[in-house]
Amino acid sequence: MLVEFITANREQLVALARAKVAKRLAPRPTERELTSGVPLFLDQLAETFRSAPSPIAGAIERSAAAHGAALLNLGYTVAQVVHDYGDVCQAITELADELDAPISADEFHTLNRCLDNAIAEAVTEYTRLREESMAERETERSGVFAHELRNRISAAQLGFQAIKSGRAPIGGSVAAVVIRNLQGMATLINRTMVEVRLGAGNSQRKRIHLHELLQETEIGGAMEADVHGVSLSVMPVDRGIDVDADPQILGGAVVNLLQNAFKFTHSGGRVSLRTSVNAGRVEIEVEDECGGLPPGKAEELFGAFQQRGTNRSGLGLGLFISRRGVEASGGVLRVRDVPGSGCVFTIDLPVMALVS
Q: What is the dotted CATH code of the domain comprising 2-134?
C-alpha cells in the first residue's frame, strides 16, 4: 500500500525531496521549504491519499483545497506549492521504483490525481484569497480616503464660517487652518488621480521639457512650504533636459515627494529641489530636514499605508504612489538617509536625445 510505503520511508523521502527542492533554480528555495515545508507537503499528500484510497467523490478536492489554503496562509507562493508537491511526488515515485515497492498502478494513478487536484485547488484558493485581499484593501483605502477628505472639508468649512461671521480675522490662525485643509484636499485628490491613472494603465508618455514641469511644481510648492513654515530652495534647470514620461504622473510624483518633505521637515527648516545630469540620465532630488531615518527603515517608506514619525495625517500612500508613477515613466525612485539631518529622495530617469 502506498500510504504504508510513505509512512515507513518518510525520512528517506523527506531527504530525497529536500535535495530536489535545493537544486531548484526558480522559484528559489527558501529555508522554510527545506526545513518544514517538505515534510508538510509529504504529510499532506499522504493524508489526502489516506482519505481517498479509492475515488471517493469530492474527498481529494476537499482535502486539497484545505491544504492549499493553509499553505498559502503560511506565505507559500503558488509556484512553491506547485513545484514542492511535484518534487515530493517525484521522490515517492523514484524511491518506490528503487526499492521495487509493491505499489499498484491504481495507487500511482490515485497519487497523480492527488497531486493534480492539490495543485489545482491550491491555485484556485490562492486566486480567491488574493481577490478577497485586494477587495478588502480597496475598500479600506476608499474608506480611509473618504474619512480623510470629509474631515478636511469639515475643518475648512468651520474655519470659513468663523472668518465669515467676523469671529476670526482673515489673516489669523483660523485662516491658516482653512488654507492647510484646502491644501490637504488638493493633495488627496492629486494622489488619487495619479493612482487611478496608474491603475487603469492610462499612461500617456510624451516628451516633457523638465524645466517647465518643475517650474509649475515650484509655484505650488512654494505656497505649501509657506503653510508648513519651511523654505523651499529650487535649483534652476537646464532648458535642454527632456524626458519621456506622462506629465501628470511624473508631476504628481514630484509633488508627492515635496509634500512628504514639507510634512516632516521641522518648522524653520529647508526643503531642496535640484536636478543633475550624468551619463545620459537625469536625477531629480528632493532633500528634506526630517532628522534622518532609523537604520534599515528606508525601503519601508515605499509600502502602501506606511507612515513615519508622529505626524499621522494623510493616508500613507504618497511615496507608494510616487514610486509607481516614476516606474511607469521608465525610471526608478530611491531614498538615501543623511543621518541626523534628513533624507534625499531621487527620481532617476533617462534623458531624451535632443531633437535635431
A: 1.10.490
Q: What number of other Cβ atoms are within 10 A of residue 35's Cβ?
A: 11
Type of residue at 4: E
Place of cell 551619463: 279
| CATH architecture of the region 203-350 | 2-Layer Sandwich (3.30)
pLDDT in tens, 279-297: 889 999 999 999 888 776 6
Ordered by start, the domain boundaries in the chain are 2-134, 203-350
**Residue 264 pLDDT more than 80?**
yes
Phi first, then psi: what are they for 200, rounded to 5°? -85, -5
What is the average pLDDT score of the chain? 77
What lies within 8 Å, CB to CB, of 8 at 6+ separation is none
pLDDT grade for 355, boundaries at 50, 70 and 90 = low
β-strands 332-338, 342-350: how paired?
Answer: antiparallel
The pLDDT of residue 347: 94
Strand 206-209 vs strand 242-245: parallel, antiparallel, or unpaired?
A: antiparallel
The whole-number pLDDT of residue 151 equals 65
Judge whether residue 136 has pLDDT over 90: no
Query: What per-residue confidence (pLDDT) applies to 268?
Result: 92
Please write down the HEC assignment for all residues of 34-52: HHHHHHHHHHHHHHHHHHC
